[in-house]
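Subject: design request, 110 residues
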């Protein structure tokens, strides 16, 4: 039993070291147009926000420099313009679109 506990603790320690190494490789970036992280290969990674004239324009996830997962885009009045999902830089599945006043407009399937 003691050997099993030691093995489990060692595996958890190895996983923590891997996560710690990954986090230490991320570099935070922020300017007036965007904010997010770059990985060791200088590719966008994780959650990012983009701005236009100081207002949030879009937000979503990158994996190894490619757009992935749910994204949202906004009108310049701050109301939601569209939302949907990307897979490897390509739109995927249903996307919802909204009028400038925030009222739902339509869904388009990609």
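Subject: RE: design request

Done. Sequence follows.
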């Amino acid at each position: 039993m003691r050997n099993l506990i030691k093995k489990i603790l060692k595996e958890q320690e190895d996983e923590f070291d891997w996560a710690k190494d990954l986090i230490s490789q991320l570099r935070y970036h922020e300017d007036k147009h965007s904010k997010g992280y770059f990985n060791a290969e200088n590719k966008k990674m994780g959650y990012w926000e983009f701005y236009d004239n100081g207002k949030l324009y879009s937000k979503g996830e990158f994996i190894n420099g490619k757009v992935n997962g749910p994204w949202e885009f906004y009108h310049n009045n701050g109301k939601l313009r569209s939302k949907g999902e990307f897979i490897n830089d390509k739109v995927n599945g249903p996307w919802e679109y909204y009028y400038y006043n925030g009222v739902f407009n339509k869904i388009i399937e990609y």
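The helical segments are 2-25.
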